[in-house]
Amino acid sequence: MLFLDFTGTARLWLGWMAKVQLLPAVLALNAVVVVALVVLTLVFGRLYCSIVCPLGVMQDVIARVGRVGKKLPYKYSPAKQWLRWTVLVLFVVALVAGVGSFVALLAPYSSFGRIATNVLQPLYLWGNNLLAALSAHFDSYAFYSKEVWLRSLPTFIIAIATLLIIGVLAWRNGRTYCNTICPVGTVLGFLSRFSLLKVYIDTDKCRNCSKCSRHCKAACIDFKAHQVDYSRCVVCGDCLGKCEWGALKYGRVPKSNTAKAPEAEKPEAGEVDKSRRAFLFGVGAATTGTVLAQTTKKVDGGLAEIEDKLIPKRTTPLTPPGSLSAKNMASHCTGCQLCVAECPNDVLRPSTDLLKLMQPTMSYERGYCRPECTRCSEVCPAGAIKPISREEKTSTQIGHAVWVHFNCLAVTDRVECGNCARHCPAGAIEMVPMELEDGEEVFVPAVDESRCIGCGACENLCPARPYPAIYVEGHEVHREC
Asked: Residue 222 forms beta bridges with which residues?
């Protein structure tokens, strides 16, 4: 609901759910949440992956549907440590280097966010619009319609691909993605080896029936060796209810039980512990496209078709107020799409820049950034958009307006306009006289850059088509006016 609800109501009740995700909390330097999640893992195991991570819960839903009719749906498989730690190392390198596109592809909350925003939200909006149409038919306005549009074709394609890949893996093998690809799962998997409470096998009661292993969606129970791979166990408890002999238990592992583990599973003399080496190694160490403008044609009074606006080419992309700078956005944003889903004015959309793919950028074809709206800064869980008050927003310059004379109607059609000046909330635009080559005098906009905050009201409301006669150029570092 946090991603689907376009009214902004859900964030008042569910906004905290985004802030308790591990990677966003680390990037936001939220020490309280990080310490709490580490302690949770050290005491109970990987409960985070079972009940906190929405991508994990989504996989469980898909896996439950996929195993309908299968009495013994899974089987034990050895951990692919080389793959897990290689992905983690690449993820950390990309995070440090500011390659946001790679981070967004692998971060679990980001993966779920782009699925929810690009696949589930349109379905939710169509259902809402149907209710709005039905209620309007009966003279009720309990619902209002919301236009459904494609924010970014590359992000949409990546969202579909993510859903298909993770969905197929979950359908066939349960938590394969969590235990082979997910970097957060790899980190928590290392910590869970030292957890106080664990699922363990009582070797005196075990009959080697394999039911525990065959019902383990994490494929981490080796019933033959009477061992559980705690780095992959997500403490779902599915195995506990399947054992008819009471051999599966959850609690502190008795020393006598660990002593009975088969000698064959212990590393022989001279054998390298690959998982430990992988951990030390880990510690030591796209798409292109265009954002579609509105896809439906607007009609002016039913008389004339209005041409769609096109996105102007900006030398410096615009980042939301509160993001401080393009560098801060690139180093903290995980591309979870939550701010994009929450933007009520349709200003935010995923970037198509290869290095910043799926991170939010601003454009004003469908609306402008209203000075009183701070919703994106309120929902960002990773510190990419810092909380900002309305007063602070009205004095933050994210960019400045630029006038393009050869697009202006006053110059091309010799008509009075002044739309940009009339609607500028900062009073940064003034209409001044300008003499044309033929001696005729027209009034054109002059921008006071010291007062302009880059909200985009002028660009959005400019009647020139297909490109506006005035547009906003971004600032690498935001300023105070």
From this structure: 227
